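comment on this one:
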Amino acid sequence: MHQVDLSLKEITKVEGAATLDVVVKNDKVEKCEFGIAEFKRFYTQAMRGKPYAAIPQLLARICGTCSNAHLLCSIESVEKALGIVPSQQSSLLKKLTMNGLMIRDHALHLYLFAMPDMYGKDAFLDFDESDPQQHQHLHDAFDIKAAGNALSIAVAGRSVHALYPNIGGFNQTPNKEEIDEVIKKLKDIRPAVLRLIKTFEDCKFVFDRETHFMSIVCNPYGYLEGMIKDDHGNTITESEYRQHLEHVVIPYSQASGYEHERQPYMVGSLARINLSRDSLPEATKKDAASALSKFPSTNIFHNNLAQAIEVLQAVDESLNILENTTFAKEELIKPTRKSGIGVGVIEAPRGTLYHKVEIGEDGKVIKGEIVVPTGQNQINIEVDLKRRIEELLPTDITKEGLQLEMERLIRAYDPCMSCASHFLKINLDKI
């Protein structure tokens, strides 16, 4: 018996810290435990007793990457609790805020985290400027991220921890000069986004395993409205989500896991494209037709390709809205009741996000609940890792090769955990 410690000394292309403990006996994986090491942040406790007006900005601090997803989801939960129906303009501004997040966040993952694996590089900034393709990727990455940031700043005030979205509407709306500048940036990056899609369409990484998928399904394609559906056609209402998501305590992980109908499932871009690809904008379907022909897919690495397609969708939808809408200052819509229970459900970059809040007559939060995408994907990731290890064992793979394969697979899910100084620590006892 021997133990192989594959601790990494620095962050390696995911957000946060995770552990993986594997025991192999007679070439069979007897234990495979994937744990999220730094997850519990006690936000649901911190919510209690706070004025409801403070809750969205508080919960946005859950994540420094997709803070605007938490912000909008929390706003939705409070609005539903208090009987607030957003205006049509507010709904469009929320869509634009989400699109800015999708463009920036997906570009971050695809270029900085996933793409180095395809080129045998340790980091994106190790790309060779003298190689025309790698040189193009370096410039495309920052151009796409900059355009996503510009959209978020113009519409929401900031690209992270946005200032303008509020309960009942937006504190400020973009002016014509800001809109014209963003339209130009979005049009300029569209060729770069098509190159990004082609790059991941040509990626040879494959891990194909039958699993279940779940996401919000709506027409047109979007992240804020619709019904929660699975790949069997079952529909879940937002307010009844806890009757369908089964909470699973994972003793070796700081994060709770979830199952649906006693089965693990996957949320995220792959789930969304699998279930809703027909409702994408016509321009997106036309220019990404070759890539879309690969869906529905059970290749987990196609989550990366699905994210690239969603960048194009976000660009195309945003251009349509910005070119056909005149925004004007609106008063925030007032609550129609003092207390209530509200559930917000949106599609964050990494999958379906749930916020629930209960507000008392005094306007303070009684309790709340948050279910994040990575927690939902956790059990599915573990099942995939076990299967992948079983596939690799007969190849007599080295410990370095095993580490790389496990990280590639986990990266394909684009998990978001609390920031930490290392990513994956594998204890492998091979008997």
